[in-house]
Specification:
Length: 395
């Protein structure tokens, strides 16, 4: 055990099972550990560093903003948050934004907005229907929203007002909807849940059902947004528009930020209803503005699509080669492979040894969420390491 690992063991609350490596530096698609060993990073700061590590466009914006104004307060106007708001609105189907500091916090804001909607338009309806196997964050309310018992059981009782249903069957949603329902909150692809999804027809039917009932559709695009699926927003690939959308992860390329976006008709907050000390602060928003501007101007979603398709085809080839790979799935650069046994940890450790960082999303599945600026050459290198690593695993 290195000194740093020993310190973690001694001081940190025991919340993480960490990959045994101390990362000290990152540049583009690569990171380095404290011994100087280089890794190709297909974990991407957990789907955050969309432009790669320390991208010059973002680093410059952070440096400049850090020398100008880091924080004041939402009691006054600040320019970076308004520039980022305008860029988000001009490039999406939504009309209003609120800035928070993380994904869970953005989802909290979305649910509060939906409850305001329920109070004003639906006789006090307050319940939000979510999907089984979803992930919406770690605050108490978002643990309740997350459709996975393992996140809830340690903290029971969890807040009321959430109900989780199986994804993919519109009749199940229809039956779950009651007079207490104010919104449906879904991920287009369940990233933390193992890269699982439902059909475009299903999402279109959900959209129609929400319209019919006057309930809001919240899309949690915290992981699928910012070009990850090969379009700037995931909803563009599913032929629907949300009433509320949340973003976080990739928006500021690593600086903490979260966003609630809403259609004008769903923007029912009034002054005092919601707030944040740090949310929308100049530093995070300058980083967010630089990141989003670069993503749009350089068509980074186009690269995610092109390189993602190439990567998916390569993973399919590995599936032909290894009988223990049972599924290859995902869109753009949100991809996963599933095994018929719980060998994801062994595969992760072998990849690490061979210079590739990946994510064990389930005991039997690996997820790949690299920077969206990676090249086919990076993918070739990752596939070669993965091949070599899987070849060495005893199954
Ligand atoms: C990561 C994630 C969250 C939580 O974001 P935090 O910043 O960790 O709070 C919520 N929803 C989805 C879909 C995510 O991928």
């Amino acid at each position: 055990m290195s000194t740093w690992q020993a310190l973690e063991d001694q001081y940190y609350l025991r919340t993480f099972t960490r990959i045994p490596v101390v990362i000290t530096k990152g540049e583009g698609a690569h990171i380095w550990d404290d011994t100087g060993k280089q890794y190709l990073d297909f974990l991407g700061g957990l789907a955050v560093t969309v432009l790669g590590h320390c991208h010059p466009a973002v680093t410059e914006a952070i440096k400049e903003q850090a020398q100008t104004l880091i924080q004041t307060t939402n009691l006054v106007y600040t320019i970076p948050q308004l520039q980022l708001a305008e860029l988000l609105i001009n490039n999406s189907c939504l009309q209003r934004v609120f800035f928070a500091n993380s994904g869970a916090e953005a989802n909290e804001g979305a649910v509060k907005l939906a409850r305001r909607w329920g109070k004003l338009k639906l006789n006090g309806a307050y319940e939000v229907i979510t999907a089984l196997n979803s992930f919406h964050g770690r605050t108490l309310a978002m643990v309740a929203a997350t459709g996975q018992a393992k996140f809830q059981e340690p903290y029971e009782p969890v807040p009321i007002g959430f109900k989780s249903i199986a994804l993919g069957d519109i009749d199940v949603l229809k039956q779950a909807t009651t007079k207490e329902t104010c919104a449906v909150m879904l991920e287009l692809i369940q990233g933390e849940g193992g890269v699982l999804s439902a059909s475009e027809d299903y999402f279109k039917a959900v959209r129609e059902w929400c319209n019919q009932k006057g309930i809001l559709l919240i899309l949690d695009e915290i992981q699928t947004g910012m070009g990850r699926l090969g379009t700037l927003w995931g909803y563009q690939q599913f032929g629907i528009e949300p009433d509320i959308m949340t973003l976080a992860k990739g928006l500021a390329n690593g600086v903490p930020i979260g966003v609630v976006m809403a259609k004008e008709k769903a923007s029912v907050f009034v002054p005092g209803d919601h707030g944040s000390t740090f949310g929308g602060n100049p530093l995070a928003c300058a980083a967010g503005f630089a990141t989003l501007k670069y993503i749009i101007e350089k068509d980074i979603p186009g690269n995610a699509k092109k390189v993602g398709d190439y990567f998916l085809a390569g993973l399919e080839k590995l599936k032909q080669k290894y009988a223990f790979i049972t599924s290859v799935r995902g869109r753009g650069l949100l991809l996963a492979i599933e095994f018929n046994k719980e060998i994801a940890q062994a595969a992760l450790m072998a990849c690490l040894e061979n210079g590739l960082l990946v994510n064990k999303v389930k005991p039997n599945a690996l997820r790949f969420i690299p920077a969206l600026v990676i090249t086919k050459k990076d993918v070739d290198e990752a596939l070669a390491i993965l091949d070599k690593s899987l070849a060495g695993i005893n199954v």
